[in-house]
Amino acid sequence: MCTADTLVCGNINERLMNISTDLNSESYYPSHEAIDFYHRYQEDIALFAEMGFKALRTSIAWSRIFPNGDDLEPNEKGLEFYDRLFDELIKHQIQPVITLSHYEMPLHLLKKYGGWKNRELVGFFERYARTVFQRYKDKVKLWVTFNEINVVRVMPYLGGGMLLKYGNPQYLHEVYQAAHHQFVASSLAVKACHEVIPDAKIGMMMASNLSYPKTCNPDDVWQNMTSERETLFFSDVMMRGYYPSYIKRFFKENNIEIDMVPGDEELIRKYTADFLSFSYYMSTVIAKEPEEQITGNFSWGSSNPYLETSDWGWQIDPVGMRILLNQLYDRYQKPLFIVENGLGAADHPDAHGEIVDDYRIDYLRSHIRAMKEAIEDGVDLMGYLPWGCIDLVSCSTGEMKKRYGFIYVDKNNEGEGTLERSRKKSFHWYKNVIKSNGLEL
């Protein structure tokens, strides 16, 4: 059992999650069966291949390989499943892009050790990483350590397997201690990956929180810089290899003392990420004294009157993607990789059963154009992987209704439906985008 099994569906952008450990209750959990990719991956990969996919980002479930997390030997049946999955991708000339930890970990590590605030998880994660590197060294050449690693700061259960109450005096200390343990674990994974798979690349991944100051008032500008640093701290450590001076002042002013062991700082400095991957969906506006609060993809701020808004209140900002790409490349001068970008919408089949999702096409078209402009600006961009290629349970709301994919899955929030797959209008559009390498939008 993994922590994802105990996450109650609901608005994940609340700062305090409700956690259920009673899996025998009458409640319905959309995430448990989800779209049943486990049994239907061959069918789904064939559809991805039909679109012309060159790469697919997915993840290995840590709990499938080491069910308790602290096991001494891996679960062979779990390893065999990913052998079959990766072989199927390779058969269709689709390169796997694999995340080691994507919002799940063995539940035992929470119950016995308290999650990532416990140093012992570093060793368990290294064992897991080395196991899968050795197993799949000939099949996977692109790896990511932790999905949206900065989320541990605002969603400690989701990002760190920790039951913490926001506002508790120890909250900040424990989330930053957990982050440090993940930094060390990530560096150990980078070290192991380079040793086991010399021709592989392994990167970090964060949820981008691009924001603008509400006015040119210096107080708003400073507040925005402070807000952006809450995210950039994570990439500064993992890309530059050291704790920046601004976070040291923050720790001092908040009585936070990170427990490090000898060698941690050297390890983090020596084994930085090969590339920076990130999710980008929206931007926000930050003010010293905000008049309102909107949320989306783990970010908080005010609305921007110059932008349109999705059905779920996420502001659509393709120019922001260009700005973010330039900012990150200017800061790190290492390759960037967009591994999530898309529009969540309530898709409805028409009288002919077709999904005419022109709104999704418009969203993706504008963001791809912005991406192309960033490349012309000189940004080293490894690739672009939309979220998601097929409808699935939305992480942000825990529902099927909020759809992202090019492929429609017949299932609703109550679990009703055939799970039949069908092609949306965006499927055919994006197929041509790939075929033309982005020239025809």
Note down, in words, how this protein is organized.
- The chain is globular.
- The protein starts with 29 loop residues before the first helix and ends in a 6-residue tail after the last helix.
- The strands form five sheets. The chain has a seven-stranded parallel beta sheet. A two-stranded parallel ribbon has the order 5-7.
- The chain is built from 14 helices and 15 strands.
- It has a single domain (3-435), classed as TIM Barrel (Alpha-Beta Barrel), CATH 3.20.20.80.
- The chain has helices at residues 30-33, 37-51, 62-65, 76-91, 107-113, 120-135, 156-160, 171-196, 218-240, 245-253, 264-270, 318-332, 358-376, 425-435, and strands at 55-59, 95-101, 142-146, 201-207, 211-213, 276-279, 284-286, 294-296, 299-301, 308-309, 315-316, 336-340, 381-384, 407-409, 421-423.
- The protein is α/β, with parallel strands linked by helices and 441 residues long.
- 43% of the residues are buried.
Spatially, the strands of the biggest sheet line up as 1-2-3-4-6-12-13
CATH class: Alpha Beta
Number of distinct beta strands = 15
Q: Approximately how much beta-strand content do the residues carry?
A: 5-15%
Shape: globular
- Describe the oligomeric state of these chains in a short phrase: single chain
InterPro entries: GH, Glyco_hydro_1, Glyco_hydro_1_AS
GO biological process, one term: carbohydrate catabolic process
GO molecular function, one term: beta-glucosidase activity
Pfam families: Glyco_hydro_1
